[in-house]
Amino acid sequence: MTHNGPQRLEVGSAPRDAYEAALASVAPWRGQRDAEPEDPMILMYTSGTTGKPKGALLPLRKTLFNCLNAERFFDIRPDDRVLAVAPLFHSLGLQILALPALFAGAGLVIQEGFDAERVWQAIASEGVSYFGGVPTLHQRMLDALVAGEPFETPPASLRFAFTAGAAAPVELIRAFHRRGLLMKQGYGQTETSMLTCLDGERALTKAGSVGRPAHHAEIRLIDPATIEASPESWRDVQPGEIGEIVVAGPICMLGYWQRPEATAETLRGRWLRTGDLATRDEDFDLSLVGRAREMYISGGENVYPAEIEATLVEHPAIEEAAVVAVPDPDWGEVGHARLVARTGCELRSSEILEWLATRLARFKQPRMIFVEIALPRTASGKVQKHLLTPHED
Known about the structure:
- The protein has nine helices and 20 strands.
- It is an alpha/beta fold.
- A seven-stranded mixed sheet has the order 4-3-5-6-7-8-9, sandwiched between helices. Strands 10, 11, 13, 14 and 15 form a five-stranded antiparallel sheet that branches.
- Helix 5 links the parallel strand 5 and strand 6.
- Helix 2 packs across helix 3 and helix 4 (116-126) packs across helix 5.
- Residues 1-13 have low confidence and may be disordered.
């Protein structure tokens, strides 16, 4: 385990907090029985990127089949050493990196907090085989390599990097490849963990895709116009059409803790609605479009913020971008973009809008652009869009 410095655990030296007091007030259960696949194993909270986090109750079977999916996709070997920087209360850190590594008998290195230079040093000193994180983390890791802090090329022990949590920019994947590091792309949720994966053979030829369904996941793309009806009435979209991802299989949660309405909305028969929109090609490789709740209608046209954000970060001076919808008296809704500049760069709204006009249709272009120092994020690094309220100025 890697830390900033010596760690010490003191027991009984501080007054009990409310959580410890509640545990102490309950009599221990003396019963014993064999665990069943449907038994709850862990209550894990969603990221809360679009609102209040929900507690997903995850059964034992989900962890087992997710470990099998990860072992298959990552080709986890007993001599691997896996680095987990993402917090272990998040699905990426615990369910996709840590538990599958332990299940396969591999070594696990845990590093608290994120600092790109310190992560590269840990990879080198611990002989790490692979690590994972959201695209923002990987971008900062790449920036450190470009700056030579502390290395210009990835350590030789590293077999690949894994990115999930959002669609990774194609140029990010290619930039790592130019420095000799394969980046695998995947997609999943707290409620399901790993759903799709793009293997190494197609990492470049299909860069930007999140890949095909994992082995223990049955996936469909459903026409949003039919998704509110019963599953018997759902219509599967054709290649190139946008649909909502639904999944079935042993990797699905039991439901949301004390949220019966949210559970009923998400679990539809044997299917789980992800709320994520995507397209597929003839090989059933998926490309994420965005969250269904983030889509807005401007002048009668559907607009997907993820498409605009992916275009914005292609600008050499833009480090990060987030687009949210705001009400508009003429168009119904329009987009406002929040941008973070790359170090040493200056962003001018008028110049960005002029540049964007050559790349996106008019109805997709944000009406306002604001330059921020940073974007609000969850502990796992995802942007909390519900905190991006309209500016007053």
